[in-house]
Each structure stands twice: as structure tokens, then as C-alpha cells.
Amino acid sequence: MQRVLVAILTFSLGTGTAPKNLCTYYDIVDYLNISSHDKLRTYILPKTNLKEPMEVKLDFTLMAILSVVEKLQTVSFYFVLNLEWKNPLATWNPQDFCNISQVILPLDTYWSPPIFILERVDRQNSDMNYMVLTYNGSFNSTQPFQVTLTCSLIILKFPFDTQTCNLSVASYLYTAVTDLVMKTRRTASESMKDSQSFFLTDGEWKFTNLSIVERTEIMDDGGFSVITYMISIKRRPTLYILNLILPTCALYLMDMAVLFGPSSLEEKINFQIAIILGSSMLAVILNNSLPTSSNKPPVIVLFFLGTFLLMIMAVLDSFFLLYQQRKSRPLDKVLRRLQRRKTTQNLFNKADVGAELAKTPLRNQPVTHLAKEDLQHLNPPKKAQGGGQPAKGHWRPQEQNSFMPVLEKVLLYSHFVLSLFFFTLIFVKWSS
Fold first, then answer.
1. pTM as predicted
2. Does residue 11 sit in helix, strand or coil?
């Protein structure tokens, strides 16, 4: 009888259920009672100490500069934002769960900081809706963002400009004094170094500097915490130099070469008008790149406008010289005709006098006296008897034409000096 009881007891102990080992993530979910959580708890701030605000640490990494639209004053960035915070209501002992220290959960499982980007103008949200929960209640959420921000672009030194755009992360729902405060996890230099190592694009814009400002924005019903990332980007001007600035300088050098060249004034005017038309096409290309409104005109606009006005001045100089040249030609022709007629009339008169002298007998007139009279007829006096002025009706073409070369030199050299002063001023404005 005793043997039967021992056998039954042994059989019952051998077929009994062994103690369960908690070694899965489902066990942690059951332990934290997440499956039966009310969704309202995900919107309530999990804070046990009501006197101190909850601290949320942010880490910013810039990945790419997607686009900069000068006309719309917008900038598109691709960046990664990492958030860390603690929830004292979500903890467990890793030794009770086979040393499982963390678990990945959906973002809406527990409360997460509601953040808002102040300069954002689009509605695209992050598609990374997961977070990492550590056994001590520490949450870590890494969210990539592709956002378009408003940025006040100062294009005074375009295309040698450097822009600084702000990316402000804030939380309007909680006051910074008692509820929630945001801090940066790393310094600006560390974040910048990390961003440059992960930077993906190498286009028109270059990432140059990153500054971080932590502040409390004061409103009527209280203040909220704001972290502003000041991103400095610099434009690479090589394309604009090759497409706009160098062709404009080459056209202006051609204009100066035509102005100082040995061609006729009619040919100079034709070449200068053709150069002005080429410069106007470059101005149209520039107009498509610049914003429609700005407080001050960019230096490159002054550069194009100044070169255009200098080209027009060169055309006007050529027209003025052509007008003066053609104005003096009819007067030259009239004076030349009058001089020819007078010379011809004198020759005919002298011929008639010589014929009459040949017919008249030489009575008592000495030969020397007649020779003197003939020489006086052949060589009229160059000056009047009373003074040093030329005689009336006498015209010297070399004295009349000497005015045109002097006028041409004055106009050309004054245009050259004005051009040199203008380009020096533009260079100083771009380099300052």
C-alpha cells in the first residue's frame, strides 16, 4: 500500500507544470499593462514631482540642404531630431525578465513630447513613429524630418552671400516653469561636427556653421521652452560667375575695345547696340534667379545696371561724335567751294590783266614796276594791314578740323575713368 502511494505521488510531481520563465518582450508589455492602457494616458504628462518641470533633451543633426528658393524666401532641410525624456511610471527590473533592458514600442503607446517647428510652412510629418523604452523609464525617439522653412534671405551680396536660417523647436502645450523644459544634449560644435560627417548633399549651398540658443518665449498665459538652431549656409558662386558675371565683363570689354578702336563711328554704333542686346539677355537670366522684393537692391543688380548704363553712354558718345563730324562736313564743303571759286576768279582776272599788258606798248613804265604789280596779283597778302588776324574770306581746314580729335579724346578718356571708378566701387561692395 505504501508503494502505491509513493508511485502516485511521484507520477503527480513528474507531470506537474514547471515555473514559467519571463524572457520575452510580451512579458514586459504584460507587466507594464500596456495592452490594457487607456489612450487618454498617452496624452497626460507622466510627472510625479509637480514642483519641478520634466526635462526633455534634444539632439539635432543636419543631413542635407534640399533647396533654397529666393523668390519665395523658403529653405528646405532634411534633418534628424533625437528626443530623450523619462517616465517614472514605465520601469521594470531587467533581472526578472532575463536581463532585457529595453523594448521598442509605438510612439503612441506612452506620452511623448509634442513638438512644433515655428518656421515650418509645410505639413509633412515624420514617418518614424517608434521609440525605445529602457528599463529605468528613459525614452529615446529619433525622428527624421524633411521640412520647408521660411527664412529671411539677405541677397545683398548675391552670389557671394551667406544666409542664416532659424529652426525653432517649441512645445506650446506646457509651460516651461512647472511642466516641461527642453535642453540640448550636446554642444553646438559637437552637433556641427556630427552633421558635417553625415552631410549628404554637395550642391549649390555649403553648410558652414551651427549655433544653438535656448530661451523661454513669454506669452500672455505663461512661457514655453524654445530651442533655436541657427543654421548658416554659404552659396557656391562658381556657376553664377561663369554664367553671369564673366560674360557681362567680357561684353563690356568688347564695348570698350569698339569704342577705342579705329573703326568708323557708324560701325562702332552698330557693334555697341549688338553688345547691349547681348547684355540684356543676361539681365533676363538674372531676373529669374532673384526674389521680386527686397529691402535693398543686390550688388549684382547694381553691377548689371551700371554696365548697361555705361554701354548706353558709349553709344551716346559715338552718336555725339558722329553728329559733330557730319555737322562740320557741310561747312567744309561750302568753304572749300567758295575758296575754289575765289581762286578761279583771281586766276581769270590775272590772265586778263596779263593779256592787256601784253597788248599795251611799254612806253615809260619800268619793267621792275610791272613785275612787282604782277607778283602782288599772284600772291595776295595773308594778313590785313592793321593787325595779325587773317584776311577776310581766307579759310584754313587744319585749324577747323583740330577740334574733333580733342573732343573725341576728352569723351573717351572720361568714359574710361568713369568705368574704372564704377568697377572699383562694385568690387569694394562685394568684398566688404
1. 0.71
2. helix
